[in-house]
Amino acid sequence: MTNMTKEVELLREERITPQRYNYSAGTVGSRFLVQLRDNKKITGAKCPTCNRVYVPPKSNCQFCFDKLESFIDVSDMGTLQTYTVISSPQSYYPLQPPFVLGVIKLDGVDTGLVHVLGEVDFEEVGIGMRVKAVFRDERVGSIRDIKYFRPIVR
Ligand SMILES: [Zn+2]
User: Fold this and answer.
1) Tens digits of per-residue pLDDT, 61-78?
2) pTM across the whole model
3) Which of 104, 114, 120, 124 is least surrounded, with the fewest CB atoms within 10 Å of its CB?
4) Domain spans of the chain?
5) How much distance in Å is there from the Cα of 125 to the middle of ligand 1?
C-alpha cells in the first residue's frame, strides 16, 4: 500500500515577476508630465480649503476630499527628507546601482516626491540636504524627464 493519501505539507513559494505595462496618467497626471516635458516646470495642485500643495498633483485632497483644480508651478529646489542607497541591481530600477533614491520635499510643497539623486557623494548625502532638479535635454513626458536631483552647493 502506498502513502498517496497521506496529507502533504503545502509550501509557499515566492516569485517576483516584474511586469512592464502602460496606463493613462489621467488629466491631472498628464498636465504634470506635459509641463515637465515642454517647459521644465514642476506642477503642483493646491487645495482650496486647506491650502496643501501636492506634487505630483492629485485630483482630490487626501485630507479635505475637495476637488483640486488649482494648478501652480512650484520650485525645482527642495529638501531631502529621507533616502536610501540602492546597491543591488533589479531589472525595474531606473539606474544601475549604486545610486541614491530619496524623498524630496520641494519648497512650498506639502508632499514628498520620490526620485533619484545624482552628482552626490554617498558619504555626504544626508537628511536635510538641499537639492535641485536637473532636467534631461531630451524630454518625453515622463517623471524621468527630471534626470535627478543634485545637491545645491552653497
Ligand atoms: Zn485640503
Assistant:
1) 999 999 999 999 999 999
2) 0.84
3) 124
4) 26-151
5) 32
